[in-house]
Design the sequence.
């Protein structure tokens, strides 16, 4: 017997410790080996950077000084407009070449219409049955149909035009107040987000969030407003719980706290709706989406709770997407006074300065439409639409795509490709006066709303809000850089979108 085994026999504490190490280490080592074998065996997939055991390419991505989309562009230079990489044992495929994007979003749209499992942060924020994150299937179909029918159809969007009109009047009022109070220096972000949230809260929940300077301001409602905003923002932070699930309860404690408060307040709001419905009896008339949902018979999937989460999902999908689009466009106009002045000349000649521009005017404002289109081509709400996933194995451009691969369509990569648009890296609205490109999913060169089955169902509402908000602000104000100092145009994750890292601040002068 050697001294090691002799030692074990005579020292039971050592033996216990070693058994403990073996019991805990073996499954970990087994998982590492199993995962790495899975990675190494993935033959026929698109080429890509070599993955490491456990982390895959995560270490390289997280330690890169570049933003994730820039890291992708750098790899695309080496591997082409389609390459693969790994985060842990999850395979990702990046596509930005026109042909590969077409195959994923058009030819094989149905095969790539699912979504990956949600990280805990997203699940807590959007709820377990979010339309955005639901797998392709019956629940997703029903929830999407319900929201289109009652909120997002052309007819429903038109019905809510008066809400947008009033909220935008309020927005201009707030900007004027701030302009007066702060000697002309205005930071529009908070006002824009509140306006967008109110244009959705009224048709969905029947309430709005008055600003602190408005009559009807109320601390409790403001706390709900803050928690909705905060939960959407927290969702964009990297979820370490996906890499280290054991740490999820600790690292996501902040999101749990925010969403618990938010959900409790929303449930109370729904209880108020229910009580009003019961009181009204047969004379009940639905005034908002919660009222409509209260009349739908519950099924196993379509429970009231899930439907309420669906509303939050719609809020999230609507508010910041339109909000960041408005702020980015204003930032471009602040840096480019010649574009703002041309827009003002168009508004002055078509509408004049007395009457505020209306949604019905947009079709007569070609330069406004070209500016908004250029924003969506140049920047959009982010470099990628939602993640797509195939439930069964398939191929793209002849490469094998194993089941449950996450496919990331780099829409911005495509719309900034110099072989797709000339002077692609410049903000030039005139290009869309020369060529009227569709941006609603039919022309793959500019895809701010995605395309195919998972494309955005809120396009009509989103475009109405962005056009009208930009037009109203440009009609009401001149705005310029403060003391000629350029704006910080760096991007930062904001929920599932990217916003300006530093909120836009400019010198505003009422016209
Ligand atoms: C400027 C405004 C908006 C932009 C740029 C935008 C963009 C997008 C994008 C890129 C996607 C993902 C598409 C994909 O994964 O392929 C999406 C999905 C979605 N959007 Fe929008 N959106 C906007 C406004 C809205 C509005 C106003 C609503 C509703 C009120 C809305 C509701 C949704 C929903 C529910 C989804 C999930 C669709 C699904 O997974 O089936 N969006 N949006």
Sequence:
């Amino acid at each position: 017997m050697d001294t090691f085994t002799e030692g074990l026999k005579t020292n039971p504490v050592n033996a216990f410790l070693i058994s403990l190490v073996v019991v805990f280490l073996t499954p970990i080592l087994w998982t590492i080996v199993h995962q790495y074998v899975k990675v190494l065996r993935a033959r026929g997939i698109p080429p890509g950077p070599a993955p490491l055991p456990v982390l895959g390419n995560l270490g390289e991505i997280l330690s890169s000084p570049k933003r994730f989309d820039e890291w992708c562009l750098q790899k695309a230079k080496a591997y082409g407009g389609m390459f693969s990489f790994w985060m842990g044992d999850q395979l990702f495929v990046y596509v930005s070449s026109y042909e590969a994007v077409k195959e994923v979003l058009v030819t094989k749209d149905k095969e790539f219409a699912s979504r990956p499992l949600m990280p805990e942060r997203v699940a807590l924020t959007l709820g377990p049955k979010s339309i955005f994150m639901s797998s392709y299937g019956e629940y997703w179909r029903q929830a999407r149909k319900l929201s289109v029918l009652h909120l997002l159809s052309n007819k429903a969007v038109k019905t809510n035009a008066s809400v947008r009109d009033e909220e935008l009047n309020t927005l201009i009022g707030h900007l004027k107040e701030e302009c007066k109070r702060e000697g002309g220096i205005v930071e529009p972000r908070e006002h824009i987000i509140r306006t967008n949230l109110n244009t959705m809260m009224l048709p969905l929940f029947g309430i709005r969030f008055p600003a602190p300077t408005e009559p009807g301001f109320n601390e409790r409602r403001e706390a709900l407003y803050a928690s909705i905003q905060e939960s959407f923002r927290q969702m964009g932070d990297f979820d370490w719980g996906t890499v280290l699930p054991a740490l999820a309860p600790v690292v996501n404690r902040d999101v749990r706290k925010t969403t618990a408060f938010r959900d409790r307040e929303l449930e109370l709001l729904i209880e108020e709706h229910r009580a009003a419905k019961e009181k009204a009896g047969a004379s009940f008339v639905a005034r908002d989406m919660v009222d409509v949902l209260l009349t739908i018979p519950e099924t196993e999937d379509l429970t009231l709770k899930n439907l309420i989460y669906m509303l939050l999902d719609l809020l999230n999908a609507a508010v910041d997407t339109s909000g960041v689009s408005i702020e980015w466009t204003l930032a471009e106009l602040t840096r480019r006074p010649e574009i703002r002045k041309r827009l003002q000349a168009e508004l002055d000649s078509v509408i004049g300065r007395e009457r505020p521009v209306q949604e019905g005017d947009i079709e007569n404002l070609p330069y406004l439409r070209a500016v908004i289109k250029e924003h969506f081509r140049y920047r959009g709400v982010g470099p990628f639409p939602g993640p797509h996933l195939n439930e069964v194995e398939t191929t793209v451009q002849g490469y094998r795509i194993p089941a449950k691969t996450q496919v990331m369509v780099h829409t911005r990569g495509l719309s900034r490709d110099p072989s797709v648009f000339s002077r692609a890296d410049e903000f030039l609205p005139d290009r869309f006066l020369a060529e009227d490109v569709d941006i609603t999913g039919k022309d793959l060169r500019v895809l701010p709303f995605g395309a195919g089955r998972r494309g955005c169902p809120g396009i009509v509402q989103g475009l109405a809000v962005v056009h009208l908000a930009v037009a109203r602000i440009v009609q009401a104000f001149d705005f310029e850089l403060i003391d000629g100092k350029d704006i910080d145009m760096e991007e930062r994750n904001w929920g599932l979108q990217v916003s300006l890292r530093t909120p836009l601040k400019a010198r505003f002068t009422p016209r």
Observations:
- The chain has a mean pLDDT of 89.
- Residues 131-132, 144, 152, 313-314, 317-318, 321-322, 325, 381, 385-386, 448-450, 454-458, 461-462, 466 surround protoporphyrin IX containing FE (CB under 6 Å).
